[in-house]
Design goal:
6 helices; 56% helix; alpha+beta; 2 domains
Length: 207
């Protein structure tokens, strides 16, 4: 059985309350770095900033008021499950946005845990690793995204397999994009036209 919350729970001389406030301050700092600095910089989406901050804060306090570490972890996974269901009801919410949602909850749950044998430095290191990982992924993995478009192409002679390099060069010149891959969807020999899917890397101009 868990002890009832004491009357002086919110007193400044209560180590439990002081510990929660310290962890909350750490949580706010890293939420700011994750959401305002990284997410906003690389996505440019301002409309989700309020949502992410509020989610992280609420998740932190929900887990913080629980006394058992096992229950805390169970609640953390429960929150992930609930918001994964909410994601199905949300429009214009990409996989990247969902990844930031999970990361926001993960950081908040980690920072809310009262691990007596885990020093403060360890929590800071974990947060730094998460934030650094997000930065590296954004900067070096997601900096260029693969775009695809359909085009109508009229030079059927270059569609031959042995002329693939010339086809890539010709389509790149016509579109002004550095085409990396072309797929032939349909060829109309009567009209001498072909429907192609072109693939190219588009740089994220928000970087």
């Amino acid at each position: 059985m868990h002890d009832n919350v004491p009357d002086c729970f919110f007193c400044l001389n209560n180590p439990t309350f002081v510990g929660i406030m310290w962890r909350f301050a750490i949580n706010l700092v890293f939420l700011f770095i994750l959401i305002r600095v990284l997410y906003f910089r690389y996505s440019g989406k301002e409309k989700f900033l309020f949502t992410y901050f509020l989610m992280g804060i609420i998740a932190f306090f929900i887990v913080s008021i629980l006394r058992s570490v096992s229950i805390e972890m169970g609640m953390g996974f429960g929150l992930f499950a609930v918001f994964s269901l909410l994601r199905l009801r949300t429009r214009n919410f990409t996989e990247k946005d969902m990844a930031y949602t999970f990361t926001t909850f993960g950081v908040s749950v980690i920072n809310s845990l009262k691990l007596l044998r885990f020093p403060l430095l360890g929590v800071l290191i974990i947060n730094l690793i998460i934030v650094l990982t997000v930065f590296l992924l954004e900067e070096f993995v997601l900096k260029y995204k693969i775009e695809t478009h359909e085009i109508i192409y009229d030079n059927l002679e270059l569609l031959k397999p042995e002329k693939r390099d010339k086809l890539l060069k010709d389509v790149s010149v016509r579109t002004g994009k550095e085409i990396s891959k072309i797929k032939i969807r349909r060829i109309n020999y009567k009209r001498k036209r072909a429907l192609l899917d072109i693939y190219y890397k588009e740089k994220n101009h928000l970087n």
